[in-house]
Design brief:
single chain, alpha+beta, Rossmann fold, Dna Ligase, domain 1, D-amino Acid Aminotransferase, Chain A, domain 1, 4 domains, eight-stranded antiparallel beta sheet, four-stranded parallel beta sheet, about 25% strand, globular
Length: about 400
């Protein structure tokens, strides 16, 4: 068998390895000439995963048996569309793929199904009259983009106009959504829907860079106690969403704001969270979501079992850089060997150029710390941050350690 994998980021390394372990030949397509997943593929094409025509051409030329991706929204939509056009297997149809990757369609379904969400307006041209009754601060975002690209919090009319213009430029459909800002803690919930039943796998809180209105994530923090405390509420909302979108067997990611009593859904997708979320799920719930996506595509049915988390607390830390050209990581392997960090991840390649920090796609690397007490977790985190370095082409440390605040 032969599979066409879309996107060559870090999660796709695990996907390519999973496919290869099953004896499936892999073809990788990514817009970048040297994506981090390229060495793990049998065949590589430099092509945008958003270019449906080009991806269709590659699928036909390589005579692939199926297309697949993991942990990314827009590539999932391309997989669904091309698979449907070519009569190849996919775990969701194109219409569902559109509903779960386009925030305009998504919000429509939320409203019809009574899923709690923020008051919002979808527009192609900014109409201030349509926003009457909505109070600042507001959130502006493209309807069809990921990695927090084009998402901004605004507090006045001038900021709104600038943010709206930027969001429309990011959008493939020249459309943006403006919604009310809801105070509370942001939760990222990973779900697996099995035979129509939503199973909560993990919940993590998302920490954003301070004094930054672009919602750039620098930490995902899992607490077993918190997961169990909000499990009934989140599971109820997840089931509501699964029913509304007709998801029967599928991974699901829900981002929501929790105010201590109620939860409001920001958005969701029929995929696993990006970055290293698939590893968090494995550590927190013992479930292999990458393998599950392959099984689903091949017509098999994964099963969610019962498993205890590896530790009470798991923190995934994401590293950003000062401007420069990335060369290498230093100290990470030693920290892993000593058990201070349980793993680390390289998201960019040697020679990658860093300028400003605009979205979550600008992270260079990440690492995980795990512990059963907060004190142990904090000590491991401090030790790791103090000893690791990210060097540029001149041997200078370009790591933004100031962003990795204490746990």
């Amino acid at each position: 068998m032969k599979a066409l994998v879309l996107a060559g980021g870090f999660p796709q390394i695990a996907l390519l390895q999973e496919l290869s372990s099953r004896g499936i030949q892999t073809v990788l397509a990514d817009y970048n000439a040297e994506p981090v997943a390229k060495p793990y593929a049998d065949i590589f094409y430099q092509a945008s995963t958003l270019d449906v025509e080009k991806i269709t051409e590659i699928a036909k030329a390589e005579q692939v048996d199926f297309l697949i991706t993991a942990c990314t929204d827009q590539a999932l939509l391309t997989v669904a569309k091309v698979s449907e056009e070519l009569g190849l297997p996919c775990y969701l149809d194109y219409r569902t793929g559109l509903n779960v990757t386009n925030k305009s369609y998504m919000k429509e379904v939320f409203v019809r199904a009574g899923v709690p969400t923020a008051k919002h307006v979808v527009m192609g041209t900014l109409d201030m009259d349509a926003l009457r009754g909505m109070e600042y601060p507001l959130i502006v975002k493209p309807v069809d983009c990921n990695s927090s690209k084009g998402v901004k919090k605004v507090t006045n009319d001038a900021e709104l106009r600038a943010a709206f213009d930027a969001a429309v430029r990011y959008s493939r459909t020249d459309t943006a959504i403006v919604e009310e800002f809801i105070e509370g803690e942001e939760l990222s919930a990973d779900i697996y829907v099995e035979d129509g039943v939503a199973h909560l796998l993990s919940i993590s809180t998302l920490d954003k860079i301070a004094n930054n209105d672009k919602f750039v994530i620098f930490r995902g923090f899992y607490s077993h106690e918190k997961t169990e405390r909000v499990r009934p509420l989140v599971t109820q909302i997840a089931q509501q969403i699964a029913d509304a979108f007709g998801l029967v067997n599928s991974p699901m990611l829900i981002q929501m704001i929790y105010d201590g009593r109620r939860a409001f859904v920001l958005e969701f997708s029929a995929r696993t969270g990006g970055g290293v979320k698939y590893l968090l799920i494995r550590r927190a719930a013992g479930f292999d979501v990458i393998g599950a996506v392959v099984d689903l595509t091949l017509g098999n049915k994964p099963h969610v079992g019962d498993a205890k988390p590896e530790n009470e607390y798991i923190a995934n830390e994401f590293i950003y850089c000062y401007p420069g050209v990335f060369d290498r990581l230093v100290g990470f392997e030693e920290l892993k060997a000593e058990g201070i960090i349980s793993d680390y991840y390289l998201f960019k390649w040697k020679g990658a150029v860093f300028d400003t920090i605009e979205n979550s796609g600008d992270r260079v690397a990440g690492f995980t710390v795990q512990a059963d007490t907060v004190e142990e977790l904090r000590e491991k985190h401090r030790t790791a941050v103090a000893r690791m370095r990210v060097l540029d082409e001149n041997g200078k440390d370009m790591m933004r350690k100031d962003l990795l605040t204490d746990l």
